[in-house]
Amino acid sequence: MKYHPINSSLFIKNRANFTAAMQPKSIAVFNSNDIYPISADSTMPFEQHRDIFYLSGVDQEESVLMLFPDCPNPDLREVLFVRETNDHIAVWEGEKLTKEAAFKTSGIKTVYWLQDLEKILFEMSTYADTFYINTNEHYRASVETETREDRFTKWLLAKYPAHSVAKSNPTLQHLRSVKDKIELDLMQHACNITEKGFRRILNFIKPGVWEYEIEAELIHEFVKNRSKGFAYTPIIASGNNANVLHYIENNQQCKDGDLILFDIAAEYANYKSDLSRTVPVSGKFSTRQKAVYNAVNHVKKEATKLLVPGTLWKEYHVEVGDIMTSELLKLGLLDKADVQNEDKNWPAYKKYFMHGTSHHIGLDTHDYGLLHEPMQANNVFTVEPGIYIPDEGFGIRLEDDVVIQEKGEPINLMGNIPIEADEIEDLMQS
C-alpha cells in the first residue's frame, strides 16, 4: 500500500464496538471484495470492501473475517482468513499478508489460510444459533453485480439452514458514521493532499488549457503524496459543463471568461475527502459571477452553522433551502411570486439548486449514516450548496468537509483550502 501503516488499535476498537451490539451465540461474517474483470486477462484495480477494512485493516483480496464474541473456544472469537502466500505469488503478484503481518495489521491473533475456512466455520457453527450477514443497505445503493459477499451469503445460508439470520448493516451504519480520532486524522491527511492538488492547479489554469490537462496535474500531485488517486471520478467542468451535475468527460477546452467547477479530491488509506471549488479561467470573476459565487459561499457558511448535535436531516435541508431562496431572490433569479406559488414537494429554489446540501463522508464518499438519527459529535459531513444557471453559461458549487463538535460550529477539515473569491483571484494572478 502507498499509505503509512494504521495503528491496529483503531480496528480493535471498531470490532469491540460492533461485537457489543451482537446477539448472544452469533457469528458475523465479512468478506473482501472481488477483483473485477474487464476483458481477456485484464482486471480493474482492487478496492477493498470498506466493512472488512473498517473492522480489520486488511486491504487484500480473498480475505474473510469472522466475529463470535461469546464463543466457548476463546481462540475462535475473532478469526481472520487470508490467502496463503508463497514465493511464487510473491514473484508474480507481489508479497501478500503472512499470518504474522495479518496479526500486526489487524490485532487478530487467530489467523488461518483461506483453505481452512469451511473446517473452522463448521466448528464455530456448532456453538452458534445466528449468523450476521453483511448486506448493502445504503440509501443510495443500486447494485446489479453479485458480489463476493453475496455469493458467500448464498452458500452460508444453504449450508446452515437451521441457523437464524441477522443483519450487520444497521449496526455498521451507526458505528461507521461516528469517526474515531485516528479516522479523523486520516481524513485530514486526505484533505491536506487535496489542498496541495488544488493549489497546484491555480497557477496552471489559463485560457486555452484543457480540462484533462488539469486532471493530469491533480493526479500527479495526489499520487506523489501517497494517495491512490482521486477519491471518486473527478469533475472538471468549464463553462456550461458545470450545469451537468455529474459531468466527468473532462475533455473540453477552457475559455477566457468561463468558470471551471471542480468536484475533485484525494483519498488516503481508503478514507475520502470531497472538495468543490469554482474558479475563473482568466483569473478574475466578472461582477455577476462574483455575486453568484458570494451567494453560494454565504449559503455554505450558514448551512455549516446548522450542523450541530441533535439536528435532524430533513429539517436541516428545509432550513438550507430557506437560506438559498433568500439568496436567489437577491440575485433576481427568483421573485416573490415564484416562492408564493411553489410546489412544497419541489420548492422554487430547486430550479437552481437541485441536489442535497450534505452527505456523510468517510471510508466511502457517500459514507454510512442513518438519516433518521439525530446528528452527533464526530459525524463528518460535506457542505456543498450550488447555483446552476444554464442561461448564463455557468454553475457554481462550493464544498468542504466538516466534523460536528459536541459544542459550537463544526471543524472544517478543508479550512486551509482557499475559498474566498478575492483570495482565489489573488492566488491565480500572483
TrEMBL record:
Its EC number is 3.4.11.9. It holds the Pfam family Peptidase_M24. It catalyses: Release of any N-terminal amino acid, including proline, that is linked to proline, even from a dipeptide or tripeptide. Keywords: Aminopeptidase, Hydrolase, Manganese, Metal-binding, Protease. SMART domains: AMP_N (SM01011). Transmembrane segments: none annotated. Residues 6-142 form the Aminopeptidase P N-terminal domain. This is Xaa-Pro aminopeptidase.
